[in-house]
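Q: Please design a sequence for this.
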């Protein structure tokens, strides 16, 4: 769901105009962002926690030229889902997880050896 979808959902759920729903969604997003900037985190019960994280600077390599490059420090927001959200996701996607693990197990079987190559 994107911002427009959220506005449509709020409008339908609260039976209000899309303009009013847009104001509410924009106000909520703005207040969440301001809180993260001010305090460094935002906890939403039953959903998860947004935290400001800093990734330190490091020396990287340009994969094309192999030249050493200085990668600067980055400040970002990380999300950690609540246990309730994790449980709901596992319940919803349990069948998908089981079938994908079966596929990955069968695809990890050893490859046949070509006798000519030794």
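A: Design:
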């Amino acid at each position: 769901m994107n911002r427009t979808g959220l506005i449509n959902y709020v409008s339908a759920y609260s039976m209000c105009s899309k303009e009013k729903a847009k104001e509410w969604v924009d106000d909520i997003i703005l207040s969440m962002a301001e809180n993260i900037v001010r305090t460094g985190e935002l906890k939403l019960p039953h959903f998860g926690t947004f935290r400001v994280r800093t990734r330190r600077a490091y020396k990287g390599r340009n994969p094309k030229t192999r030249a050493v490059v200085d990668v600067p420090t980055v400040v970002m927001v990380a999300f950690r889902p609540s246990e309730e959200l994790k449980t709901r996701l596992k319940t919803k996607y349990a069948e998908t997880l089981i079938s994908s693990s079966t596929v990955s197990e069968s695809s990890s079987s050893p490859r046949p050896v070509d006798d000519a190559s030794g």
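Q: Thanks. Anything notable?
A: Residues 34 and 40 are 10 Å apart (CA to CA). Residues 1-38 form one domain.
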